[in-house]
Amino acid sequence: MQRLDCRADRNTCIYYDVTKSNNSVPCSGQSTNCSSTVKSGVGILVDSKNNPAWTAVAGYDTATGLGSVNVANLVTNWGTANSVPTATTMTVSKQTGIVHGTSENVSVSITVTPASGTAAGDVALMAKLPSGATLGLDQFILANGSFSGTTQNLPGGTYQVYAHYAGDGVNAPSDSSPTTVTVTQESSKTFIVVPLYDASTGALLNGNTSSVTYGSPYRIRVYVTNNSSTANPSGPPTPTCDQVNEITCPTGTVLLTGNGAGIDGGTYPLNNVGYTRDVNPTLTAGTYSLAAQYCGDSSYTGSTSPTSALTVNAGCDADLAFEPATAIYGNDGVWPWGHRNNGCVRSNAGLQRNFL
User: Fold this and answer.
1) Which of 102, 103, 112, 115 is nearest to 162 (CA)?
2) How far is CA 24 from CA 11, 32, 68, 75, in A?
3) Class of domain 188-353 (CATH, top level)
4) Is 2.60.40.2470 the CATH number for 83-184?
């Protein structure tokens, strides 16, 4: 069989295998999959194991695939390419009594055996849900054709898991037999955070305020986390769910109320990192008791936030008409609402101007 990789003979191979370095790139601190946890810092993209994303290894890998192609040999040997069949087996140490997110979640042992030689590359832990949909849960790099380790990425519910070997350019892909697991819910916590911004610059003035002026730029955020998180009086709770494991963040909806009534529709969907927000609160002047109720999902039980007092102070002329504002960018992206500047239209060099 014509060799697909060039580790043995660089003159007859199809692909020049890349086995060193990675394709990680710089990223801003605290951004998704960034190694830096400091907001003002700079890091590199990392995988779920905090390794540079993604690392090149012998054989197929997500950083370089099969490698760079030897076009002449590819064309010459196009009709002779084949692959070695493989058999993938998987052992899961626990099938029941697994609590979502806990350290004893599950231990996984995976072995890929080719007809000859040693399989290299990646193997994925997959779930087949009751709906018939498949979901990737984790990814492991084979060492001498096998992997043994743990995962905490199993979602709640009862479903089948199996191992999928992606192949390495010589050895063909294969799947293990499925194993049924049952993962029970873990407790959740829900928090309300109200950040306040500067109307002129967009700079954050207060990470979690209890008092705003009507028309000032603020948001009402709701974070849903696991039970280990604690409230932070100056900003988001510690840790947020994505700081623990973004793959297992809570999903579903939150009911946001003020003095028992839904705020701006009331129901908000959580995003992929476990929080949601009202970007343009319409609360009039007064004092409000804010509360957020999380409904829960298959992985987390529901929870209700502690009540948060928010005072909205009247502006200088809340009934004065105002022109649409031009969006400016702040710490949280574009603010898509016109700002009354405490209820007033502010004049600048003879022109009416509004602030976000």
Assistant:
1) 112
2) 30, 13, 18, 32
3) mainly beta
4) yes
